[in-house]
Amino acid sequence: MSEVQRETMEYDVVIVGAGPAGLSAAIRLKQLDPDMEVVVLEKGSEVGAHILSGAVLDPCGLDALIPDWKEKGAPLNVPVKEDNFYMLGEAGKLRVPNFPMPPLMNNHGNYIVSMGNVCRWMAEQAEELGVEIFPGMACSELVYGDNGDIKGVVAGEFGLNPDGTQGPGYEPGMELHGKYVFLSEGVRGSLSKEVIEKYGLSDGKEPQKFGLGMKEIWEIDPAKHKEGTVTHTMGWPLGGNAGGGSFIYHFENNQVLIGFVVHLNYKNPHLFPYMEFQRFKHHPMVAELLEGGKRVAYGARAISEGGYQSMPQMVAPGVALLGCSVGMVNVPRIKGNHNAMLSGKAAAEAAHAAIKAGRSGDELHDYEEAVRKGPIGKDLKKVRNVKPLWSKYGLVASLGLGGFDMWTNTFGFSLLGTLKHGKTDAQSTEMASQHKPIDYPKPDGKLSFDRLTNVSFSMTNHEESQPAHLKLKDPNVPVLDNLPKYAGPSSRYCPAGVYEFVEEEGKDTRFVINFQNCVHCKTCDIKDPSQNIVWTTPQGGDGPNYPNM
Ligand SMILES: Cc1cc2nc3c(=O)[nH]c(=O)nc-3n(C[C@H](O)[C@H](O)[C@H](O)COP(=O)(O)OP(=O)(O)OC[C@H]3O[C@@H](n4cnc5c(N)ncnc54)[C@H](O)[C@@H]3O)c2cc1C
Q1: Ligand 1 pocket test: which of 53, 118, 305, 383 has the largest number of ligand atoms within 8 Å of its C-beta?
Q2: How far apart are CA 190 and CA 199, in angstroms?
Q3: How high is the pLDDT of residue 260?
Q4: Is 19 close to ligand 1, i.e. is its CB under 6 Å away?
């Protein structure tokens, strides 16, 4: 494809991804200099279409970026009023009191929001300042300069045939060049992954860790709805099979945002994260809340969990990685949006100063320093041992030890130093023969649903006449290796039912990729034990169409 001729557009800063990180960077650049030429490219059909985190937002990022966000009508309408934490058994629950929790776990002053709607509002603010935002534009390639620097991206290539040749309506897309390129693709960004590998940015760091987050929005009986209530649970149904837990947020309009996170370092390849989520809703505490209500939306997305010790170097020549492209989630708080916003602001300030000094295409070290030494680094450093403790000692021990470590860190020290994560999530998967299959109850169609029915509630759509965007490095590995060794785990870890092993009498087993169902969560790229599946961008506008997740 190298002979393809493309139009080129020149900007000061090219930003990939209209999430909280990318939009914050765009807004800050224009606040600093209204003449700065800034473009934001988003693969979703509109801003917010691929944003899943129905969220408790710590407003510190927005406070720093747009101090008068309230007057400007930001959709932060539901302050947190009540914070609950339960350990679940199969039928019972144990309330964990709030007082032993370190202050950082307190949700007082935070808001329950639709991050999709917050991003839509941020995009309006950016456009008012003169930022160009192009949704429906997937950035599929990096453009390298002569000196090995990154000078831009290719966006908006459409009309390839399934075999990768140019179809009748082929459009080559454009090259967008910038003095600096910001990658704010969120967790496991495809271009970010290329940059991290090419420049060895993770060398000497701990591997990045991930969870799979699945979420449904329910409209429930108004009599049961308690706007502003935040509930987190741990324990059943995962038990000792995997780390993770649930969140239940009572949002506005009788809506409840109910989600479940499974840490992707689980060992037993028979585990079925999606079915764990469905089973969770049958716990009496949850079933009672949802009964009589209706599920109105579904989605899934990976969440970064490696934290402080897993953040790669964030800059390379011409490029900076923002937000969850490097993984800025505070795991015990399950919060990353505030850090994504703060990172966007910091990257913009570093790029603005560099451009004013006549620089371009070099490494924005001031940005990296601002992240590591500023509020983001401080936020993540305090909780850096929670995830490794959980992985090593399980839930109960990690609650005590992790809680103690967070308390001492609140006072500026840790007796544990900085613990390591060790293996990647793919490497954590063990042979199927070492583990027992897990028997999951069938969804009842009222509280629990099969995957394909739920995927239809994510409004996911992919043009079928394009190459599958989920690529196999070796097409033989799924059937010849993953199936016998790991019982074909992709058929279970994918929350959208993309992967299937089809067995027909008299025929060899076939591996089928239903890429049309993909909700862009990136779990396959992370968890495949052979690291044989590579997530690439489909054509722009494809993927989920989340309304207000
Ligand atoms: C289930 C779940 C619950 C969560 N709950 C909370 C919470 O309660 N509070 C909280 O603060 N955080 C929460 N988080 C974490 C939070 O979602 C992330 O920290 C945050 O989204 C990171 O922001 P970002 O801008 O880096 O990336 P994202 O929000 O992921 O945005 C990235 C954007 O870039 C676009 N994009 C990606 N690649 C390309 C490409 N190549 N070309 C064009 N566009 C591209 C995507 O479509 C997307 O719009 C949760 C996460 C999950 C998964």
Answers
A1: 53
A2: 15
A3: 98
A4: yes
Least confident of 87-101, 110-124, 356-370: 87-101
Q: How many CB atoms lie within 10 A of CB 9?
A: 16
Contacts of 230 (CB under 8 A, 6+ apart): 56, 80, 82, 83, 84, 107, 112, 247, 248, 249, 250
Nearest CA to ligand 1 atom 34: 17
Q: What is the mean pLDDT of residues 264-290?
A: 98
43 C-beta closer than 6 A to ligand 1: yes
Question: Residues for the chain: how many in total?
Answer: 549
Mutate to test the pocket of ligand 1, among 303, 345, 521, 546 (most ligand atoms within 8 A of CB): 303
Tokens encoding 533: 């599946």
pLDDT at 1: 45
Runs of H (alpha helix) within 434-503 = 451-456, 477, 483-486, 490-493
CA distances from 507 to 431, 488, 504 (A): 26, 18, 5
Mean pLDDT value of segment 36-50: 98
Residues 419 and 422: their CA atoms lie apart, in Å, by 9
Report the pLDDT averaged over residues 86-111. Answer: 89
From the centroid of its chain, how far is CA 478? 25
Q: Which two tokens stand for residue 323?
A: 């937000």
Which residues partner with 315 through β-bridges? 320
The residue-averaged pLDDT of 397-407 equals 79
pLDDT in tens, 346-392: 999 999 999 999 999 999 999 999 999 999 999 999 999 999 998 88
Q: What is the mean pLDDT of the chain?
A: 95
Which atom in ligand 1 lies closest to the alpha carbon of residue 137?
Answer: 43
pTM: 0.97
User: Does the beta carbon of 189 lie inside 6 Å of ligand 1?
Assistant: yes
